[in-house]
């Protein structure tokens, strides 16, 4: 029974559509005609010009690593002169800024335009996984759309370059001021160092005196060692001579000749031993030499003690002065290195500014050409939608009229 009621309902729908077929056909054709007229004669055609920009960044090949814990002056100074790192999305947003759009308006002399109106005609999007940005400009005039797109690309490239130059100029002035300050501090450090070196007992003078005393200590030390060796050798020689003298008789006995034997009763005479005399003489010489060497050794020991005391006194005096000298020298070196590094960066910035080069540059990868096919309206699509809308609308109207007619009939029958 439910199926019959369902078939009956569908049948009524079919009968209603068939009954009002002329109306459905008329409304559908009318909708199609209106849509066609509007698409061809009312809606102005819109053309879309496309431009592709290439973003070149100096840091593309470098990945930002972890910040080092060690202080690096060159990295700090370099960071001052670097352009801020923008993402591709930030460049997309900058293309449609009022500043860039106003430059386009002024360049093209579009007095009747404002930035809001022009922005509504511009669409900017990033091409995924690339450094490319696509700029679309829509207008009823294809040549105007092309000109706006190309002008926008060129103005944006110039805008980025100008921003780079402004940043470089500002960084250059900042670094140049710092370089001048470093130059003043360097002059002060050099003056302090020169004043320190001009003192009569500065570290260099004391250091030279210490070296001279050290050389004297070495010389006297070698002389002392040689004197001690000579004393030992002379002492050993004296002991040997004394032993030989003790073993050598002072006199010797000699036989007389034949004539002497006749004239004298005694047959032998005593004479001084020449060997003994020679040994005594040599002993006296060695003793004299030994006394001289001992006196020399005593003098050397006293001189060494005196020089060593002076050397130690100089070392005590030179320690704080040497520390101060090293500190002043380090200050001069530090200010010199900082000044040189700052001036090097200032020179680099001047060169980069001279050739209009910054961390980021924008190039027109593909200029816009004059579009030949309208972007909208899509006439075929609009006509198809008009035909479909007329058919649907007239069908619902036919069903509504049929149901209204049934309700009126039922009311009349009931009455």
In short, what is this structure?
This protein is α+β, with helices and mostly antiparallel strands and 415 residues long.
- Helix content estimate: over 70%
> Biggest sheet, strands in spatial order?
2-3-1-6
Determine Rg (CA atoms, Å). Answer: 59 Å
Total count of strands: 6
- SSE topology string: HHEHHHHEEHHEHEHEH
Q: Biggest sheet, in brief?
A: 4 strands, antiparallel
| General shape | rod-shaped
Supply the number of helical segments.
Answer: 11
Average residue-wise pLDDT = 79
Distance between the termini: 29 Å
Structural class based on helices, strands and sheet pairing: alpha+beta
Task: Indicate the low-confidence ranges by residue numbers.
Answer: 1-8, 58-71
In percent terms, what proportion of residues is strand? 5-15%
Describe the structure.
- Residues 323-400 form the Tyrosine-protein kinase G-rich domain.
- One of its GO terms (molecular function) is protein tyrosine kinase activity.
- The chain crosses the membrane at residues 23-47, 383-401.
- This protein has 415 residues and is of the alpha+beta class.
- Among the domains are: 203-351; 379-403.
- Helices cover 72% and strands 10% of the residues.
- It has a four-stranded antiparallel sheet with strand order 2-3-1-6.
- A hairpin with a 5-residue loop joins β2 (122-126) and β3 (132-139).
- The radius of gyration is 59 Å and the shape is rod-shaped.
- It starts with a helix and ends with a helix.
- Mean pLDDT is 79; it is low at 1-8 and 58-71.
């Amino acid at each position: 029974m439910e199926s019959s009621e369902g078939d009956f309902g569908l049948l009524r729908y079919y009968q209603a559509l068939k009954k009002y077929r002329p109306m459905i056909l008329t409304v559908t054709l009318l909708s199609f005609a209106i849509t066609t007229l509007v698409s061809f004669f009312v809606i102005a055609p819109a053309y879309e010009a496309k431009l592709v920009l290439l973003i070149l960044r100096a840091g593309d090949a470098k990945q930002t690593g972890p910040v080092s814990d060690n202080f690096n002056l060159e990295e700090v100074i370099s960071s001052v002169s670097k352009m801020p790192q923008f993402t591709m999305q930030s460049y997309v947003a900058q293309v449609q800024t009022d500043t860039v759009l106003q430059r386009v308006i002024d360049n093209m002399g579009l007095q009747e335009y404002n930035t809001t109106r022009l922005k509504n005609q511009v669409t900017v999007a990033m091409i995924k996984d690339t450094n490319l940005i696509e700029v679309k400009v829509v207008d009823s005039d294809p040549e105007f759309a092309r000109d706006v797109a190309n002008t926008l690309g060129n103005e944006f490239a110039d805008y980025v370059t100008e921003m780079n130059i402004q940043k470089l100029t500002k960084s250059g002035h900042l670094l140049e001021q710092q370089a001048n300050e470093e130059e003043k501090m360097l002059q002060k450090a050099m003056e302090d160092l020169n004043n320190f070196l001009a003192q009569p007992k500065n570290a260099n003078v004391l250091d030279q005196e210490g070296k001279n005393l050290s050389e004297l200590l070495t010389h006297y030390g070698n002389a002392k060692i040689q004197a001690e060796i000579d004393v030992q050798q002379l002492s050993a020689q004296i002991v040997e001579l004394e032993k030989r003298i003790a073993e050598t008789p002072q006199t010797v006995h000699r036989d007389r000749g034949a004539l002497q034997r006749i004239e004298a009763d005694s047959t032998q005479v005593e004479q001084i031993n020449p060997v003994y005399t020679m040994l005594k003489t040599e002993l006296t010489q060695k003793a004299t030499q030994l006394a001289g060497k001992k006196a020399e050794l005593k003098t050397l020991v006293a001189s060494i003690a005196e020089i060593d005391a002076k050397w130690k006194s100089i070392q005590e005096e030179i320690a704080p002065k040497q520390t101060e000298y090293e500190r002043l020298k380090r200050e001069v070196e530090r200010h010199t290195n900082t000044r040189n590094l700052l001036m090097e960066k200032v020179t680099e910035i001047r060169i980069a500014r001279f050739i209009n080069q910054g961390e980021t540059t924008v190039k027109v990868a593909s200029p816009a050409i004059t579009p030949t096919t309208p972007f909208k309206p899509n006439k075929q699509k609009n006509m198809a939608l008009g035909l479909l809308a007329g058919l649907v609308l007239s069908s619902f109207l036919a069903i509504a009229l049929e149901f209204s007619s049934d309700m009126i009939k039922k009311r009349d029958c009931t009455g």
